[in-house]
Amino acid sequence: MRICLVYDHLFPQTVGGAERWMRDLALRLAAAGHDVDYLTLRHWPRGEEPHLEGVRIVPLADAGRIRAAERRALLPPLRFGLAVARYLAAHGSAYDVVHTASFPYFPVLAAAGLRRRGGYELVVDWHEVWTREYWRRYAGRGAGTAGWLVQRKCIRVAHTAYCMSQLHARRLVTEGYRGTPTVLPGLYAGSAGRVADVQVDPALVVYAGRHVPEKRVDALVRGFARALTGHPELQLEIYGDGPERTRIDALVRELGLASAVRVLGQRTEQEVAEAMARSACVATASEREGYGLVVVEAAALGTPSVVVAGPENAATELVREGVNGAVAESSAPDRIAAALTRVVDAGPTLRTSTARWFADNRSQLEIERSLDLVLEGYERQSVGAGLYSRTPF
């Protein structure tokens, strides 16, 4: 089959769960013998072109500045949507399937508008579906309402929908999707035990992720500072990068935490995996997650997780209190501190339980079944088996 994947980011040039999923999907499809093109923005210097075995990477435009102030900038997604429209107008008929991430939305609208001309099937990954209330909190009343309306337009075009959590599958239907979305069972593509010989540090907490407002790294630092009052031996290592990093550095200094908190920046996958393996827990105060891949990656290494409950956080679906981690009731410092303390105090017993949880659920957590479902869907579509219900515009 001839498959076009569309996402404005590419792993590891940018790091996130959606990037990893699209990268792994591209590699799996190519390994299965399909022709795969990956349309994206250029997040790398010219002359340093990335490589995915068997995949043609097509940078349609330079990424530019992706974020403005505390949220995504409008211009790069709009520019990408227009570039996707131009590309599919010229080349859409070369594909059997166009498979795009839902966000940014403009490529979805472009692909939907050109589908009849191109004759391809449209598939959309809904990593997250935002309510109107959340849109308004995120972008303000006017811009937030506009964003929500564009999202609803994308939801209502005819397409096959995949979600990564039950939370967002329910949201998709509530917001107007007229089919039945498929919830993919897992996204974990690593190998459990690859750093199993690392010596565990019972006082180490690790954060690994982007430094953007919705990840609330500042709330994690404040919660960690509160936990230090009862556990002065604790250490926090913060991995990743983003526009909030300078503010996090300043907060660490302001709270007098320089001896207990290390902001280590972007590191290799192997370095981050080793840090997670030797830590007492992996912690995040993220407000919004479409899946929570870091919870599974940590559990594969026997490391429990701390996450924060909230209406936008699907990662809580992956954490069972006292089994593979702890759930803080809110992002308040005392609540995060209490969750960190519960995990640290549980020690080796919780690590054993976490490893057992991963082993018991491994077949549903690993990416292979999700990739199989998508590939089977493509192939059934190609022979006209009608696996997915079609919804008219």
What key phrases describe this protein's structure?
Rossmann fold; disordered C terminus; globular; six-stranded parallel sheet; alpha/beta; single chain; 393 residues; seven-stranded parallel sheet
Walk me through the structure.
- The chain is α/β, with parallel strands linked by helices and 393 residues long.
- It has two domains: 2-189 and 367-382, Glycogen Phosphorylase B (Rossmann fold); 204-365, Rossmann fold, CATH 3.40.50.
- Helices cover 42% and strands 17% of the residues.
- It is built from 13 helices and 15 strands.
- The protein has a seven-stranded parallel β-sheet with strand order 3-2-1-6-7-8-9, with helices on both faces.
- Strand 4 and strand 5 (71-72) form a beta hairpin.
- Helix 2 (75-91) packs parallel to helix 3 (106-113), helix 5 crosses helix 6 (141-156) and helix 8 (217-228) crosses helix 12.
- The radius of gyration is 21 Å and the shape is globular.
